[in-house]
Amino acid sequence: MGDFEDLKTAIEGEYPGWQVWRSDAGRWYATRSGDLTDAQLQAGCAMTVAADDPAGLRELLREQPRGDA
């Protein structure tokens, strides 16, 4: 498995509009780079998602509605 920066860059490339980071405890997060409207939030869009590993983060991002939908 690659180092954090390589994985971060790859995930951000796969999911534009998301910024990826990792907590000191090792949990992976992605936060949208823009604000969401109330309608987008009601449609199931999340501002931030969290997972235990990069594969889990990718799965959560894959399930997320697009912010512009």
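the 2nd protein, sequnce then structure:
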Amino acid sequence: MKTVQIKATGFFEMLKLRDTPMWEIFSQMIDGEEKELIFLDDEEKVLFSYVLPDSLEKLNADREKFAQEYADKLSGMN
């Protein structure tokens, strides 16, 4: 599995500037091989990682799962 390191600050700033969802960028990175995306802070420390699946179908399943978990967390805060 290939590992891709991403500077989180720059990545999320790019998403804002382009007004592009993170999932759209992830979909463009799919090439039939799983990749471990490692998000780093400005000091090169690992913030989190995500295994980018090898297909768009699996990515969409991850996106739906993430959306549900995020909604659950938000509802728990109220």
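Residues 2-77 form one domain. The longest helix spans residues 56-77.
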